[in-house]
Design brief:
With about 375 residues, this protein is mainly alpha-helical. It has 2 domains: about 325 residues, no CATH class; about 45 residues, no CATH class. The chain contains 12 helices and 7 strands. The strands form 3 sheets. It has a 3-stranded antiparallel sheet, with no helix packed on it. Helix 1 crosses helix 10, helix 4 runs antiparallel to helix 5 and helix 10 crosses helix 11. It is globular. The protein starts with a helix and ends with a helix. The mean pLDDT is about 90.
């Protein structure tokens, strides 16, 4: 019992560290990727030195810090130091407890949603099967949707308890956007659930380990549910409140829900957006791109459609699965950043029109087509 608990705590710690580091590095990625797209140098000045003697490797460490600063990686650390040292101001008319609770609420449930996402195939070690998933829940997809939806409460709460009427309007605007796109997002997933016959995230990944077209095409969700994948990615991107769906956070033009926040409380809202980007990338990878599956890779090794095989060890199989999932998540983070720095912001009427009159009908059409296909070709 204690060993099982220790294993679960270890997997949970690794997942949390991975998620928070991915989210933190996005601040650097956003600066450098936007600089490359706009033919700029980008962040390359934030670095520091440590007063270490030569016999502790001081010169080598400081040289490494200088090179990391030249790449802009230490800018993320500078951001954290700045936010921690800034004054935490709570408006006189605001509710102090709820003002502190709102950003923590958004961050907590965004991170908690990763508990049901499988990171790789089960690891056989010390005579035990260790699932690389914090919580193997048979209704994992529903749990993730429920936890992600609670983030709306943190957003609207932040606006309403600030004692600022404009912040309240910003919170209502953000909530209406998130609710509009959550409906299209949830309905778009019905197609993949009908096709797979389960809402268990682990079983969804295993289902995509099969093949189509005589064994040549992996049975990934994007090939059997292309319309559902498109609707889900669009709606999920709107849920992250990023460009071109960043009306809740359009600071230069519109009063947002976190106007009355400063210091690390603002930092939590800022970090929550990046955590949600990682969550969306992980969900798209898991639901529509095979999760940790590698094409033609089975537990015993590679089984190619032309009849060839290549045996691999169990640890190689698990390692390739973890690597596959990580690469897919990083690729989608890069893709979302590409959209972030390419498309202009929608007007609010365009935002609502896209959510209610385009994405929602398309998600209903996807259900109808999927149902007819399943009945015709069971």
């Amino acid at each position: 019992m204690l060993i099982d608990l220790a294993i679960k705590l270890g997997v949970s710690f690794l997942v949390m560290c991975g998620v928070l580091n991915f989210a933190g590095l996005q601040t650097w990625l956003e600066r450098k990727q936007s600089a490359l797209m706009q033919d700029r140098i980008g962040a390359n000045r934030a670095y520091f030195t440590l007063p270490l003697p030569w016999w502790l490797g001081g010169s080598l460490i400081n040289e490494l810090l200088r090179k990391l600063g030249g790449l802009g990686i230490l800018n993320a650390l500078a951001d954290v130091i700045k936010l921690i040292t800034k004054e935490d101001v709570i408006p006189e008319k605001g509710d102090k407890f709820l003002h502190t609770l709102a950003p923590a609420l958004s961050m907590f449930f965004a991170v908690l949603a990763f508990a049901a996402i499988p990171l790789g195939p089960p690891l056989q070690l010390w005579g035990r099967e260790i699932p690389l998933q914090v919580a193997n829940i048979n209704a994992g997809l529903l749990v993730i949707l429920a936890l992600a939806s609670i983030g709306v409460y943190g957003v609207i709460l932040a606006g309403m308890v600030s004692g600022n009427n404009l912040s309240t309007l910003g919170g209502l605007r953000a909530a209406s956007q998130m609710l509009a796109y959550e409906i299209a997002l949830g309905v778009s997933l019905i197609g993949i659930v009908v096709w797979a016959g389960t809402v268990d995230m682990h079983q969804l990944v295993l289902r995509q380990g099969q093949t189509l077209l005589g064994g040549w095409l992996p049975a990934w969700g994007v090939f059997v549910q292309p319309l559902g994948c498109l609707v889900f990615m669009t709606a999920a991107l709107a849920e992250t409140k990023r460009v071109p769906f960043d009306l809740p956070e359009a600071e230069p033009e519109i009063i947002g829900y976190f106007t009355e926040y400063s210091g690390m409380k603002f930092g939590l809202f800022f970090l929550t957006d990046f955590v949600e980007v990682v969550l969306v990338a992980a969900l798209v990878s898991t639901l529509y791109f095979g999760g940790w599956q590698v094409p033609y890779l089975q537990p015993q090794g590679f089984v190619f459609p032309w009849g060839g095989t290549l045996a691999v060890s169990h640890f190689t199989y698990v390692g390739l699965g973890l690597l596959s999932f990580t690469v897919k998540v990083l690729a989608f983070i890069w893709f979302f950043m590409l959209i972030r720095w390419t498309l202009p912001r929608f007007r609010y009427d365009q935002l609502m029109h896209l959510g209610w009159k385009i994405l929602f009908p398309l998600s209903l059409l996807n259900i109808a087509v999927t149902a007819l296909w399943v009945v015709a070709f069971p």
